[in-house]
Amino acid sequence: MTTYIIRRLLQAIPLLLGIVTLVFIIVHAAPGDPTAMYVQPGVSPEVIEQMRENWGLDRPIHIQYLSWLRSFLTGDLGVSLTQNRPIVAILAERIPNTLILSGASLLLIFAIGIAIGIVQAVRQHSRLDHVLTLGALFLYSMPSFWLGLMLILILAYKVHLLEWWPAVLKFPASGMTGVDYDLMGGWAKLGDRLHHLVLPSIALGVASAASVARYMRSSMLEVIRQDYIRTARAKGLSERTVILKHALKNALLPIVTLLGLYIPFLFSGAVLVEYVFSWPGMGRTMVDAIYQRDYPLVMATTFIFAVFVVIANLIADILYAVVDPRIRYE
Amino acid sequence: MNEAAAGAEDRPERGHIAKAAALVPGLAHLLEGRRRAGLSLLALALVTLAVLVFAIDRVAATFTTGRVDYWVALVTLIGAAAVAWGVGFREALGGPRARAKGVSQWAIAWREFSRNRVAVLGLYLMLTLYLATLLAPYLTPYEPNTIGDMATTRHLSPSLAHLMGTDKFGRDVFTRVLYGARISLSIGLIAVSISVTLGTVVGAASGYFGRVVDTVLMRFVDMFISFPRLVLLITVIALFEPSIFTVIVVLGLTLWPSTARIVRGEVLSLREREFVEAARALGLSGARIICRHIIPNVLGPVIVAATLGLGNIILVEAGLSFLGLSVQPPTPSWGNIIEGGREYLVQAWWVSTFPGLAIVVTVVAFNLIGDGLRDALDPRQRM
Questions:
Q1: What whole-number percentage of chain A has pLDDT above 90?
Q2: Which of A17, B38, B143, B186 could covalently link to B30 via disulfide, CB atoms 3.0 to 4.6 Å apart?
Q3: CA nearest B311 in A: which residue?
Q4: What average pLDDT score do residues B191-211 get?
Q5: Can you give the pLDDT at residue B18?
Q6: Structure confidence at residue B7 (pLDDT)
Q7: How many domains would you assign to chain A?
Q8: What's the gap in Å between the CA of A272 and the closest CA on chain B?
Q9: What is the CATH number of the domain that holds B342?
Q10: Where in the sequence is the domain holding A281, given as residue range(s)?
């Protein structure tokens, strides 16, 4: 087990190296370089030349590659061109926000997906099953950013026209905290944050939840047909115990592998959803950086996203090995 | 029709006439009494011919304007013609022999597919959609890009005159959604073709040759898959100039790894089968075995992946145009119409809502077809 984890960790190293290299290749294959945005009639060519020298752009490509590698290894991601401060400092502010949003979504995805999948499997071929299947089909065919806009439109704006609508269900349209956040007490602060988290995490998670439900349904159906479930029923256990205690554990196994599958998907969605909800996370930072042509920041966010995916896959693999002892580790 | 009648009269010499019938698709089918197949092939060929004759200036314009939807139309046209002639040709020359073997794998898959009512519904949805995009100029009296009278037509709510209302420039949203469908569907189709071709070749090579080739290619695939797809796309497109061609190429070049994985898995098991061994014993080259013996056997899963991928690519493209990294306004695409309506979401909800619904319907259609195809072609994966 330990050796498996260690080997899996070692395997991640070439992957990360490859990712750094790929990012480097993309930057250098692109036409123009970071100085291009300063080239204008008012700036003399000598100044541009000086800038190229300062940023090391005049050195041979393999030297640039090595110094790029070294700076990534030492955690020095450079300086943002537009904000004029170290990228590490910017990311330190933004990463937790993205993790909060994706974490909440992930919770939602698996909680709702698994629950609906179980219901569908238990009531297979019933009208409820068909309705849920159809609903899931529509939900995972939906662009997350559009769903976000629709949620904002209805649950943040239109409901204000209804007098009887409870205030708790009138959600804020953007941001992480309300304007009066600093004046609130401890619990009110938490409530405010949760309130802001609801719509973005739904927009981000619903499509994946629908797809988890699909997998859960088929996985549950497979387990229910097995002999040990018939034994459990024959013993006279209640249906509830049979499903939730005996069947659920085995049905969950294939779902764990989905975790690694959904993380990249989730981060992709986060870029769009953060943009729609003005959520100050990495995705929004990246989109802003692109509009402002802040290449070092774009590269750094790309790299961090990829690293997160590698880590998430690692965790999913290890988790799978932990929950399913039948997996061979060699 | 004269020829067909003549063919029916002197039956003994059917062989000769059937050979002549190879020139006209569908004739051979008609001669053998398969009226429905024959007539539809004939109709398909006639429509293609008619379009080529009557819209020859549009076809010529394809090469000068460089517009993507023109290219797609041309390729579709040529493809349809090729299929019609190909089928007719085979029927005319080797028809009875081919059918003597019994029902082909594709015929079984088609029968299975057409029994699946939901999947057929998806197919009809998709056909309607493509037809609507083809006939867009006839379905709406408005132009997609002409700016209306700001005082009188800005932000009109949906009505009979403007089915989906008008946007902030007084343009008819229904018209823009229709023309946007051309762009979104074209990009999807081309990008999927690129990525599926690339993925199949890489996957087949990786699975067949194994060893170093496999290790290198699959590490590469792993690396690509660990990037969040949209993040990679955004980065690459932002560094190059965002244009429709960049988007197509980048989408095509970044979505192949998943196909490659599927194909590799299939090839790994096919490689050990007797017929491949036999081919190898005959001394055929690796490339020939892959192209003639292995790839035809993995086409099922590949077609399924392509159909499901088409829906996925349309979603990704919509996201990119929403961020302004794909087709540039005023050219409409579903994503940028939604983005255009975001500013006035509350005052004019219809601008952002309807293109989103169009995306949902399209993707649902492709997912339904994809699921149906999977059940028909690849029963092991049935859910």
A1: 17
A2: B38
A3: A141
A4: 88
A5: 57
A6: 41
A7: 1
A8: 7
A9: 1.10.3720.10
A10: 96-296
CA distance A14 to B194: 28
Closest-CA residue of B relative to A25 is B236
Dihedral of the CA atoms A169, A175, A179, A182 (nearest 10)?
100
Residue B283's region, left for phi above 0, alpha for psi from -120 to 50, else beta, is left
- Cβ distance A15 to B234 less than 8 Å, yes or no, reads no
Residues B69 and B166 in one domain: no
More confident site: B137 or A139: A139
Distance from CA of A27 to the nearest CA of B (A): 7
Please report whether residue B137 resides in a domain: no
Is B134 within the bounds of a domain?
Answer: no
- What is the average per-residue pLDDT within B354-363? 93
Confidence of residue B228 (pLDDT cuts 50, 70, 90): confident
Contact A14 B225 (CB under 8 A): no
- Considering only alpha carbons, which residue of chain B is nearest residue A277? B342
Average pLDDT of chain A, as a whole number: 84
User: Are A302 and B227 inside 8 Å of each other by CB?
Assistant: yes
Most confident of A180-189, B26-35, B135-144, B258-267: B258-267
Max mean pLDDT among A214-218, B215-219, B293-297 falls in A214-218
Identify which of B240, B311, B319 has the shortest CB distance to residue A272. B319
| CATH number (domain holding residue A203) | 1.10.3720.10
Residue B108: the pLDDT is 78
Dmax (CA) of chain A: 87
> Whose structure tokens read 């009296």?
B141
What is the rounded CA–CA span in Å between residue B243 and residue A265?
24
Residues B289 and B159 in one domain: yes
Taking CA–CA distances from B316, the nearest residue in chain A reads: A143
Look up tokens 């050195």; give the residue: A59
- The reply to whether B115 falls in a domain is no
Closest alpha carbon to B354 in B180, B100, B115: B180
* B2: in domain: no
pTM: 0.82
* Cβ–Cβ below 8 Å for A287 and B322: no
List C-alpha distances in Å: B267 to B261, B276, B290, B308: 10, 11, 9, 21
Question: Which of A25, A250, A254 has its CA nearest to residue B236?
Answer: A25
How many contacts, defined by CB atoms under 8 Å, are there between A and B?
Answer: 135
Hey, are the CB atoms on B238 and A298 less than 8 Å from each other?
yes
**Contact call for residues A100 and A107 (beta carbons, < 8 A):** no
- Number of domains chain B contains: 2
Of A14, A266, A275, the CB nearest to B323: A275
Nearest CA distance, A264 vs chain B (angstrom): 4
